[in-house]
Design a protein that fits this description.
The chain has one domain (about 5-180, about 220-270): LmbE-like (Rossmann fold). It contains 10 helices and 7 strands. The protein has helices spanning about 15-20, 20-30, 55-60, 65-80, 110-125, 140-155, 185-195, 205-210, 230-240, 255-260, and strands at about 5-10, 35-40, 80-85, 130, 175-180, 220-225, 265-270. The radius of gyration is 19 Å and the shape is globular. The termini are close together.
Length: about 290
């Protein structure tokens, strides 16, 4: 095809774009693809996970502004565009029984109404491919599950002129993917490689409890992007309140990652074009149409 390819990545919070599919986005940006991150919430209720920043009164009082600034830095590192959908972070309820979600938060919105903001953005940006989360949210955070729900509605509705008529001219994306970068085959391969080299693995506990994390997903698409792992990590570190640069995210040497598992994985959820599985390109079946 002659027009510029466009990719939209729909995420729940600032930092999700840097931990899920970031190297893929950086790769496509390097190839001239127009990439837009749609961030559903501002991450206002996210905990300060970096121990070096915990207890900082300025950050605690201005967490919304701090996370927006972190997002801007990560966006620039990845070379992508980014838009906020404007919903309020739901937080991650913990306890037994679980406490109710905060009034007005993203996860409590009416799905059909909340999807309009994403439909509008799809019609403005006109992506050929959309990535989002599976029905479990990748992990069962209320905002991740809600992100899945509005993504599914928006993918179907964006091309239908009878739906959301005030949200712009219809546009139908051609493919929808679920991010599946946190998958068992990858985790097991890196774990084994570390142990074989006499190194400590951060994945032991993950693998032990994997059977409680839901069904195994179908990996359909493996995007080679090892050359962009360093950019991915820089973008992730930009989310300083969320990521400890000395933490487990960065314990596997990049050279080993590139050797053992140099791809990011996706599950093809919907396709309006013919393609052959497995794929190595999110635009497979689109480029030549």
């Amino acid at each position: 095809m002659t027009e510029q390819l466009r990719l939209m990545a729909v995420h729940a919070h600032p930092d999700d774009e840097s931990s899920k599919g970031a190297a893929t986005m950086a790769k496509y940006v390097s190839e001239g693809v127009d990439v837009l991150v749609a961030t559903c919430t501002g991450g206002e209720r996210g905990s300060i996970l970096n121990p070096k920043l915990q207890g900082d009164p300025y950050i605690e009082e201005h967490i919304h502004e701090v996370r927006a600034k972190e997002m801007a830095e990560a966006r620039d590192i990845l070379g992508v565009k980014q838009e906020w959908l404007g919903f309020v972070d739901s937080g991650l309820p913990e306890g037994d029984p679980l406490p109710p979600l905060p009034e007005g938060c993203f996860a409590l919105q009416n799905v059909e109404e909340a999807a309009e903001a994403l439909v509008r953005l799809i019609r403005e940006f006109r992506p050929h491919v959309v990535t989002t989360y599976d029905e479990n949210g990748g992990y069962p955070h209320p905002d991740h599950i809600m992100t899945h729900k509005i993504s599914m509605v928006a993918f179907e509705a964006a091309g239908d002129a009878s739906r959301y008529p005030e949200a712009g001219e219809p546009w139908q994306p051609q493919k929808l993917y679920y991010n599946q970068g946190f998958n068992r085959p990858r985790t097991q391969a890196l774990h084994d490689a570390l142990l074989e080299r006499g190194m400590e693995s951060p994945y032991g506990e993950w693998l032990e409890r994997w059977h409680t994390m839901g069904r195994e997903r179908t990996l359909t698409t493996y995007v080679p992007c090892g050359d962009f792992f360093e950019i991915r990590d820089k973008a992730l570190i930009a989310h300083a309140t969320q990521i400890d640069p000395d933490g487990g995210w960065f314990r596997v040497p990049l050279d080993l990652q590139r050797e053992i598992w140099p791809t990011e994985e996706y599950e093809l959820a919907k396709s309006l074009v013919g393609t052959s599985l497995p794929e190595d390109d999110l635009f497979a079946g689109i480029r030549n149409n």
